[in-house]
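From the methods appendix. Each design record in this collection lists the tokenized structure first, followed by the designed amino acid sequence. Records were kept in a plain field format so they could be parsed without special tools. The example shown here is representative of the layout used throughout.

RECORD:
FOLD TOKENS (388 positions):
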């Protein structure tokens, strides 16, 4: 299938802005990007009417489909809060692809979503990345697992304090995380040592296998950390075990930007468009992305849907821009930077040949309240068309 999008301002992200350009899509991929007309036969032509064409936006931290809106306990499939260490869980098994949040994402110009377990548990299970277009999650997923969710701070303490079991302190949370990694390290070493002696190998353990993926640096640990001391604990544990992590939320990242920059770990910032509902949010600031940018930290911006409805992702970026983040860096935070952090930048995050044809035509500035997605394409298929 060929689709030719003409008469558009192309915001490529990677190679600047083309004022009056054209983009050719073939078989789900971007095949040509031109500053002029593209001559091709047999293509469906979409007149962009002078609107701005951008890569589909990416939300790198959500609970879309796994925390369903309006369903109460029945739709709450994101926290298995009976055991603080559940690395064997998989977000993909809890996602309802027909949930309203999936539809809202598509209508809002968000074409890639990372869905993860919640933060009730110290280790919560694996996250996955999917595109919000389709009916079967197995056909929508593009990376599974993408990370192993973990949590520091208030949430595990609050959940297990009520149950009168560990962890009820930050010390215990860190200890449980270390113990799980140490156990996985021993499991991995035994498997390697007895690779040719199956009878001596440990019994297969799905949770250990997921943790081993972290230890082998096949996936990062996606660590929920709001407060500065929790951010530094996450960095400390990552260094102890020589693993890769992402610092998710990073609410007080503006208080320790030098330490984060030194660690070289990326951050996924947010949700900022909320009230200060708990102690670890007291120093929440829209300036955090700008401060991280000034210190050279790779970061993305999230909604943490349903905390902020996913369709408002561009508005949260707009507020970061209002408080000092350069506009282009704001766009990168929900395109190429998010793609890099998810390990998908070869496929997503910019408009250039060879990448997935996830494209959105915007009327007005997408980072303002006036921005409207008028046309959405996912994998080269027209998913939303309000141009007629």
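DESIGN:
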């Amino acid at each position: 299938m060929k689709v030719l999008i003409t008469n558009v301002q192309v915001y490529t992200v990677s190679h600047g802005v083309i004022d009056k350009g054209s983009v050719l899509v073939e078989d789900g991929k971007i095949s040509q990007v031109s500053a002029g007309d593209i001559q091709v036969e047999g293509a469906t032509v979409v007149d962009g009417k002078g609107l701005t064409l951008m890569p589909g936006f990416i939300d790198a931290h959500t609970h879309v489909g796994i925390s369903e809106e309006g369903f109460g306990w029945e739709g709450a499939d994101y926290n298995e809060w009976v055991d603080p260490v559940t690395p064997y869980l998989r977000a993909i098994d809890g996602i309802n692809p027909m949930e309203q949040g999936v539809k809202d994402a598509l209508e809002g110009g968000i074409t890639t979503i990372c869905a993860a377990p919640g933060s009730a548990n110290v280790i919560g299970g694996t996250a996955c990345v999917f595109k919000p277009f389709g009916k079967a999650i197995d056909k929508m997923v593009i990376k599974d697992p993408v990370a192993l969710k973990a949590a520091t701070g208030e949430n595990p303490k609050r959940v297990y304090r009520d149950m009168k079991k560990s962890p009820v302190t930050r010390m215990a949370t860190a200890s449980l995380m270390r113990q799980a990694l140490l156990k996985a390290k021993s499991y991995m070493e035994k498997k390697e040592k007895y690779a040719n002696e199956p009878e001596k190998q440990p019994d297969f353990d799905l949770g250990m296998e997921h943790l081993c993926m972290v230890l082998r640096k096949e996936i990062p640990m996606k660590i929920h950390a709001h407060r500065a001391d929790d951010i530094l604990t996450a960095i400390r544990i990552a260094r102890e075990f020589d693993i890769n992590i992402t610092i998710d939320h990073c609410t007080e990242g503006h208080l320790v930007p030098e330490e984060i920059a030194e660690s070289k770990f990326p951050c996924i910032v947010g949700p900022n468009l909320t009230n200060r509902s708990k102690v670890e949010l007291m120093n929440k600031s829209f300036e955090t992305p700008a401060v991280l940018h000034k210190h050279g930290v790779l970061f993305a911006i999230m909604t943490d849907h349903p905390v902020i409805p996913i369709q408002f992702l561009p508005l949260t970026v707009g507020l970061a821009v209002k408080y000092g983040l350069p506009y282009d860096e704001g766009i990168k935070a929900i395109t190429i930077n998010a793609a890099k952090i998810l390990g998908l930048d070869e496929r997503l995050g910019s408009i250039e040949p060879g990448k997935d044809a996830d494209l959105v035509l915007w009327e007005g500035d997408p980072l303002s309240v006036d921005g409207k997605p008028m046309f959405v394409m996912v994998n080269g298929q027209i998913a939303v068309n309000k141009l007629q």
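APPENDIX NOTE: Residues 57-348 form a domain with the TIM Barrel fold (CATH 3.20.20.140).
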